[in-house]
Amino acid sequence: MSLLELMMQQTAGGSAPVDASNPSVDISRPETAEIPERNDPWETADPDGTALYAATNLDSWETDRPRHFARDVGIDGVCYRRLDPEYYAWLRHKMALAKKALEAGRLDSAAFDGLRIRFNDIHAWAVARFGEDELLAAVRSLDPKTYPPPAIDPPAQSRPACAAPVSPVACPPGPAVEQYLYPKDGEWRFTEKVPQSAIDKVDAVRDQAISLGWSEARLYQNRGRFRFPCGEDFGLVCFVDANERIGQVTRQYIEIIGPPPRENRLRFHNPDVDQPWLKRTNPKT
Predict the structure, then answer these.
(1) CA 20 to 30 Å from 281, out of 33, 82, 166, 179?
(2) Model pLDDT for residues 40-59, shown as the tens digit of each residue
(3) 202 inside domain
(4) Structural domain that includes position 43
(5) pLDDT at residue 207 above 90?
(6) 236: which DSSP letter?
(7) What is the pTM of this model?
């Protein structure tokens, strides 16, 4: 049985929900476990604006712009779900099954340790966000047999209504609306819809940004090889919402300022220039 098959195994037969009063999985963070650095090109001082997405194999990633994502997100064939207390409880139950598989000799210790370390990272994030009481309540109330696991392909009735499959966008725009495409040529799998207000805001700082070393593609591109916002194909114009404005423009980043009264500030970084988090090493001669 593969590791992914084990994690996706549905509860059946004698499998029971995890007993929160006597956990069968050690979810405390080992002192020797290292938290991987997240070199996220977005920065924000507002921790409440972040969300963690986790897959059934316990890979995870964090975003501070969760409004750009659905609850379930498919990336390269792997489905990630936005973490909430109920999903945390379900993943914890799957860890309990993994421990039983370890004890039965169906899972080697190295594979289990990898799962445990990844789950501990998810656990630490969940405790900081939701609190232990809310998580334990979700663990006690979870029914693993009825919980729907993450799915890349939703039921047909929940998909946007399109007369025929359309690529690279989900549904065609109305006939009176001309679709914005940058670049207009080339083979691109995905296109992100861009409002005119975003184009106008980028137009206002275009000359300044170009003079500092930004390319037009980094400012205006809305077509990519991966679904937005994955990868580095999508430009600034895709990230400026209608209620946001552009602030400071530098060679390394352009500020996006949220609406008042909080006016959270995000930085859209230029991947074509040196950044503080990039450590360059000299090749051996």
Answers:
(1) 33
(2) 333 333 345 789 999 988 98
(3) yes
(4) 3-141
(5) yes
(6) G
(7) 0.44
Are 3 and 108 in contact, with CB atoms under 8 Å apart? no
Looking at 82-131, list the stretches that DSSP marks H as alpha helix, in order from N- to C-terminal side: 85-103, 109-130
State how beta strands 253-257 and 245-249 pair. antiparallel
Residues 211 and 134 in one domain: no
Q: Are residues 202 and 105 in the same domain?
A: no
Q: Evaluate whether residue 162 is within a structural domain.
A: no
For residue 170, the Cα-to-chain-centroid distance in whole angstroms is 20
Q: At what angle do helices 109-130 and 85-103 cross, to 10 degrees?
A: 160
CA Rg, the chain, in Å?
Answer: 22
- pLDDT tens-place string over residues 75-125: 767 888 999 999 999 999 999 998 998 888 888 888 888 899 999 999 999
Looking at the structure, tell me whether residues 112 and 201 fall in a common domain: no
DSSP class of 50? -
User: For residues 24 and 17, is the Cβ–Cβ distance under 8 A?
Assistant: no
Q: Is residue 106 domain-resident? A: yes
Instruction: Give the chain's domain count.
Output: 2
